[in-house]
Design brief:
The complex is a heterodimer of chains A (about 180) and B (about 70). Chain A has about 180 residues and is mainly α. Helix content of chain A is about 70%, strand content about 0%. Chain A has helices at about 15-45, 50-70, 90-125, 130-155, 165-175. A two-stranded antiparallel ribbon of chain B has the order 1-2. Chain B has a single domain (about 1-65), classed as Orthogonal Bundle (434 Repressor (Amino-terminal Domain)), CATH 1.10.260.40. Helices cover about 55% and strands about 5% of the residues of chain B. With about 70 residues, chain B is mainly alpha-helical. Chain B is built from five helices and two strands, in the order E-H-H-H-H-H-E. The mean pLDDT of chain B is about 90. Chain B has helices at about 10-15, 20-25, 30-35, 45-55, 60; strands spanning about 5, 65. Chain B is globular, with a radius of gyration of 11 Å. Classes of the chains: A mainly alpha (about 180), B mainly alpha (about 70). Chains A and B meet through helix 1, helix 3 and helix 5 of A and helix 2 and helix 3 of B. Chain B: Keywords: DNA-binding.
C-alpha cells in the first residue's frame, strides 16, 4: 500500500502520533476540568445535593478523559525508561517545548507563591491554605499550560494541505 | 539567530506531490512537512538528508541560509 498512514498493518504512523498528541491534550483538559470541579466542592460551600452532583461531574469527567485517552495508543509499549512512543520529529519538538514552557511557568508561579502567597491569601481573606488545594492549583496551571501549548503547536494553519488535496491529485484530475 | 530557508514546497510542487505523499515517502508526519515549508520548524540533519535524498539534490541546495 502506497500510503503507510492508511495501512492498517502499520498503524502507529507519524500522523497517528500527531493525532495521539492532540487526543492526549484534549483528555488532559477534560481531566483537569474534573479536578477543578472536585476542588470547587471543597473550596466553596454548596448544598449537599449540589456537592454530590459536582462530585459526580468531576469524577465522570476524569473517567471520560481516561477512556478518551487510552485509545490514542500513547500508553502502549511504554516502559520505565521509555518515556514516550512518540518518535516523529515535529511531535518530539512540540513535546519538548510544551514541557519546557510548563516547567518555566511552574517555577515562576512557585517563586511568586513563595514570595507573595501569604500576602495574597490574607488580602483575599483566607488565613490558612490547605497544601492540597495549593498543589491542585499548581496541577491545574501546569496541565493547562502543557495542553494549550500542544494544541497551539499542532494547530492547522491555512498553508497546510489536507490529506486529500495536493498537486498530484490536481494533476490527475487535469489529465 | 539565523534562520534556514528551504525549497521543499517548490520542489514538491514541481514533482506534483502533496504534503501527505512526501511525508509518507520519508516517514514523517504531514505536520512536519507543513511546518518545515512554512519555516515554523527547522528539521534535524536526518530529516534534511532524507529530503535531499528523496529529491535527489544536495542538501545545501534544498536548505540555505539566504533567501533566494
Amino acid at each position: 500500500m502506497k500510503h503507510s498512514a492508511r495501512n492498517p498493518y502499520d498503524a502507529w504512523t507519524p500522523d497517528a502520533q500527531v493525532e495521539a498528541l492532540k487526543r492526549s491534550a484534549y483528555a488532559v483538559f477534560l481531566f483537569t476540568f474534573g479536578i477543578a470541579v472536585l476542588n470547587s466542592v471543597y473550596w466553596f460551600e454548596f448544598s449537599a445535593l449540589v456537592s454530590i452532583l459536582l462530585l459526580m461531574l468531576g469524577i465522570g469527567c476524569q473517567i471520560v478523559a481516561f477512556i478518551w485517552y487510552v485509545p490514542s495508543g500513547s500508553l502502549l509499549d511504554v516502559g520505565l525508561f521509555k518515556s514516550s512512543r512518540i518518535d516523529d520529529e515535529y511531535c518530539r519538538q512540540v513535546l519538548f517545548s510544551a514541557y519546557q514552557l510548563t516547567a518555566w511557568l511552574l517555577l515562576t508561579t512557585l517563586a511568586v507563591g513563595w514570595l507573595f502567597l501569604d500576602k495574597l491569601l490574607s488580602w483575599v481573606g483566607v488565613h490558612t491554605a490547605d497544601p492540597n488545594y495549593v498543589a491542585g492549583g499548581y496541577l491545574v496551571i501546569g496541565v493547562l499550560t502543557w495542553g494549550s501549548i500542544i494544541l497551539f503547536q499542532l494547530r492547522d494553519t491555512a498553508e497546510e494541505e489536507s490529506s486529500e488535496e495536493g498537486c498530484g491529485k490536481q494533476e490527475k484530475t487535469n489529465d | 539567530m539565523e534562520e534556514a530557508y528551504n525549497r521543499i514546497a517548490i520542489e514538491r510542487k514541481l514533482r506534483g506531490l502533496s504534503q501527505q505523499e512526501l511525508a509518507d515517502a520519508i516517514r514523517v508526519s504531514r505536520k512536519t512537512i507543513s511546518t518545515i515549508e512554512t519555516r515554523r520548524f527547522t528539521p534535524s540533519v536526518v530529516v534534511a538528508l532524507k529530503l535531499a535524498y528523496y529529491f535527489e539534490m544536495p542538501v545545501e541546495t534544498l536548505f540555505t541560509l539566504t533567501k533566494e
